[in-house]
Amino acid sequence: MTKLPKRRPESMGGAIVHNLPFPKVLDEASLAQLKQQQPILVEHPYQITYLHSYGQDSPWFAALSNKRLLANKDTVSGYTYATPRGHDMYSGNETVWLDITDRPARVHAFTVCHFGSEEFLPETPFVLALIEFEGVNTLLLTRLMGVDPQAADLSWIGMPVQPRFLRNSKIKPTDVYFVPKDQVEED
Amino acid sequence: MRPVYIVSGGVSKFSKTRPDKTFQAIVKEAYDYAVKDIGLDFATFTRLVDGSVASYFSDHFTRQLMAGIMVQDYLGLCPKPSHRVEGGGATGGLCFQEAWKSVASGHMDVCVAYGFETMSHVETWKGNEFIALASDVSFDYPVGGFYSGYYAMMVTRHMKEFGTTVEQMAAVSVKNHLNAYHNPYAQKRNRYTIEDVRNAPMVAWPLTRLDICVMSDGAAATILVSEEGLQRLEEAGASIRRPLVKITGIGRGTDAMRMADRPHVDYDQFMRDYATVQERDSEETRAYYRRLWDHGTRYPGVHSFRAGRTAGNMAWKMAGITDPLHELDFIELHDAYTSSEIQTYEDLGLCRYGEGGEFAVSGKAFMPGIDYGLKLPHEPVCPVNPSGGLIACGHPVGATGLMQAVFALWQLQDSIADHFRDSTLQLKGAKRGAIHSHAGTGTYVTVSVLERQD
After folding, report:
1. For residue B79, how many other CB atoms are within 10 A of its CB?
2. Longest dimension (CA), chain A
3. What are the residue ranges spanned by the domains of chain B?
4. Can you tell me the distance from the alpha carbon of B30 to that of B222, in angstroms, rounded to the nearest whole number?
């Protein structure tokens, strides 16, 4: 007969205890004193792997990995979205794909992030920008390279820019980024 | 809809960290204060209240799903009806309006709205990550998800479009921090100068650390009643301050999650769909806007909050307000950033689009009787954030909109001195105020008007 375990298996890990004050004797006074006790804080790391689907927007990411920048367009109104959108917000129609890789583009707004979310802290300072494209009605959020983060200036708004693509795509929106157009032509 | 009155409120101390209590117990601090302020004991109020609405933003911060019911349980409100609302930074404002709906609709006669956030359980930069998950995780977050960065982009466009300056933004910080100096509930009570704000560490150009609100642990609660509910409480021995404070206007608006998707409409559409009554009726303002559009301005773009304008217009219409600057005695405004306070001046019609920066340093939004160390050309007209706002009080997200309601109530009850032990922030004769709650990059916005019934 199989011997059934009578104890749960022990394992490493668990909480890291920062303090654990407690009276040596539990009398009425010491029990009342517990109301004055400092709170116990425990560390609890947690990590997940989440399977995220880009759904109907997936071709946009596939295009980036092939060095093309796509947009979506309502075929009736012509309203065009720089950031993918499967259905038009005004007509409700399904949109179609459009290649805007070579469209003239400019910086619409920007910032230099000197701090950031934990995930991006190692990359600071970095430049975030919203890009406007000729003949496109909405903007695209991206990273702007080739400008000095320590010399931020409002004159960057309106600057002609051009997309560049990572050679080794990560299947993220950062597979495309933008640089000043004059720099591309210099390269 | 039935008349709805706000009769009491409580706010816990907002602080960077509150490890001394669990979130339920922090809410109870605020709740107990609200109950005690109308002279009832816990058990009596529990018997009289019909239900509640719970407000908290992030399940990530609590690492606890269904935290709302845990508060309901801790407050002894089970099995009465309740639900949780969530809408980013506007969660508290939405909660307040849901409680209003519960009473206005006749579903409840006494409803308590409570909210909290405990943001100290992770490091600041992890907290920023949690908050940034309230942006599109396919297209926004992975590019550098950081709300201060999003707001900084908005304001660079505002600066380019309208000539707004960093000094004008800094004036908002000076104002709100100094107001909070007299508010014992505030997290930051400091006197700053324009130079202090500009010399603070740069977070997202051009926003410095003193242009941005801080994360906070805290809670707030408020009690809303119908006339029948008022009678029920008073018959049980409640002492409700007179004159009563009635909720006379409710407005909400929304906008696209990705600010990149916001429209850029032409002059005619702006005037038709978004302009305030005041703007439409003024030939001079129409000409002013025509010049802006001729110069290239489009609405709302990323420099303005269409949701805020929609919420404001809706609330003003319901409350019969056509000139908010002169018909409101104060506004508690969601100033997560100095820049967004300036943007919101324009959305709420305190000034015209493009004039927010000038308005910020005009003196019109400052408190009377406080020396800010600034040269202000105008006397106060409609103080904005007399409490110190989010920038100084802190922003425990689910509590914030309710905190605004409580501070507004105390202003209108003329009871600031009782609660703050300091009368500096009491606006004399305040009759009508508004509270403004704002989410995301302007995705959900609520505006509610509170009015003393003399």
Report:
1. 8
2. 82
3. 5-122+216-245
4. 8
pLDDT of residue B400: 97
Residues 6+ apart with CB under 8 A from B76: B42, B46
**Helical ranges in B239-282 per DSSP H:** 267-273, 277-281
Q: Taking CB atoms and an 8 Å cutoff, what residues of chain A touch B119? A: none
- All residues of chain B having their beta carbon less than 8 Å from the beta carbon of residue A83 are 139, 258, 260-261
Q: Give the 3-state secondary structure of residue B325.
A: helix
Domain that holds residue A88: 55-186
- Which tens digit of pLDDT belongs to each residue from A37-94? 888 777 777 888 999 999 999 999 999 999 999 999 999 999 999 999 999 999 999 9
Task: Give the residue on A whose Cα is nearest the Cα of B255.
Answer: A89
Closest by Cβ to B260, choosing from A119, A140, A152: A140
Candidates A115, A132, A137, A178, partner chain B, best to mutate (most B CBs within 10 A): A115
Measured at the CA of B19, the angle between CA B13 and CA B21, to 5 degrees, comes to: 70
Cβ atoms of B213 and B12 within 8 Å: the answer is no
**Residue at A4 is within a domain:** no
What interface predicted TM-score (ipTM) does this complex get? Answer: 0.95
Q: Which fold has domain B5-122+216-245?
A: Peroxisomal Thiolase; Chain A, domain 1 (3.40.47)
pLDDT on residue A8: 83
Q: Regarding beta strands B244-254 and B444-453, do their DSSP bridges make them parallel or antiparallel, or are they unpaired?
A: antiparallel
Distance CA B397, CA B412 (A): 24
Tokens of B232: 């029920």
Residue B260 sits at the chain A interface (C-beta within 8 Å): yes
- What is the number of domains present in chain A? 1
Return the residue of A nearest to B144 by Cα: A120
- Expressed in angstroms, the distance from the first to the final Cα of chain B is 21
Quick check: is A43 in a domain?
no
For chain A, the average pLDDT equals 91
